[in-house]
Amino acid sequence: MDKIFIPPIKIQGIKTKLLPLIERNVLPLDELLWVEPFMGSGVVGFNLRPQRALFADNNPHLIAFYNAIRFEKISSYIVKNFLTEQGKILSERGDDYYYEVRERFNKFHEPLDFLFLNRSCFNGLIRFNREGKFNVPYGHKSQRFSKAYVTKIVNQVRYVEESLLCFDWKFLCQDFRETLAQIDDSKQVFIYCDPPYIGRHVDYYNSWSVEDERTLCDTLKNSGKYFMISTWLQNKFRINSCVEDIWKFCRTEMQEHFYHVGAKEINRNSIVEAVLMNYEPPEENNGL
Ligand SMILES: C[S@@+](CC[C@H](N)C(=O)[O-])C[C@H]1O[C@@H](n2cnc3c(N)ncnc32)[C@H](O)[C@@H]1O
């Protein structure tokens, strides 16, 4: 992977940093259908570029956004005009306008408004409250949608648009149980799962329990398909006991990375993340 592609919609838990580890351990995808039941931003599948893929998530707004590109309801050209125009209004009216768009999105759920909010809200977060309403505040910055920023987003949308012309990629809004139930025996598939971390319920679409983790594990095991899941192993404070309890039959490859919370050295924490697989290492990486 020469250059990592960053998707237009950002989410918490985006696996950009884990991509090299995933790429080294994934099986050659030429003959396999890529199934990603927790697509999130889509950064993993979008960078591995399988010929055929099923991307799913229980967050309807992520799926609606990619389906709008797939069915040509929105294009890079439309995005450029929209963000340029809306960005101009935002620079004139500031906070008031951001909250107006947020309200509009919570009523009509338009994919372009979702993109606008995701790229102008505080810290680029997506978070939905108990009623499923987007509730992230404005991320103050003068010239939010500068010409360079709009171009960057437009290029990200164009990447997906062009990929959809070459590849057979589908997007479905559904629970992971449904996605996994859809895989029939005849399909040659590779399943990549990146579920939310247990106990870190951050928003409406991200609750996750030990029971969910067990169901996921049993379903994957019984499917008889190749799978990989990504998770965390340990940080400064805790060890993820699920890996030992639930996933102990899997092969584990790990990677440590540092993240900063503020400028001081003392705030430089490390986390060990891992990919867990039910197959032996690929003999040689096919350069995906
Ligand atoms: C850790 S994120 C995935 C991140 C993604 N791999 C990336 O790099 O952007 C987990 C995703 O799972 C979705 N999700 C949570 N519970 C789910 C469920 N029961 N079924 C399907 N998707 C679910 C969330 O909406 C979220 O997008």
Describe, in plain words, how this protein is organized in 3D.
A 7-stranded mixed β-sheet has the order 3-2-1-4-5-7-6. Helix 4 packs antiparallel against helix 7. The protein has 10 helices and 7 strands. By secondary structure, it is of the alpha/beta class. The chain starts with 18 loop residues before the first helix and ends in an 11-residue tail after the last strand. The mean pLDDT is 92. The chain folds into 2 domains: 147 residues, Vaccinia Virus protein VP39 (Rossmann fold), CATH 3.40.50; 80 residues, Orthogonal Bundle (Adenine-specific Methyltransferase, domain 2). The chain is globular, with a radius of gyration of 19 Å. Helix 9 links the parallel strand 4 and strand 5.
Would you spell out the secondary-structure blueprint of this structure?
Layout (H helix, E strand, L loop, with lengths): L18 H7 L7 E4 L6 H6 L3 E6 L2 H11 L5 H18 L1 H14 L2 H8 L28 H20 L1 E6 L2 H6 L7 E5 L16 H14 L2 E10 L5 H5 L5 E10 L7 E10 L11
Helix pairs in contact: 3-6, 4-7, 5-6
The site of S-adenosylmethionine has 20 residues, from helix 2.
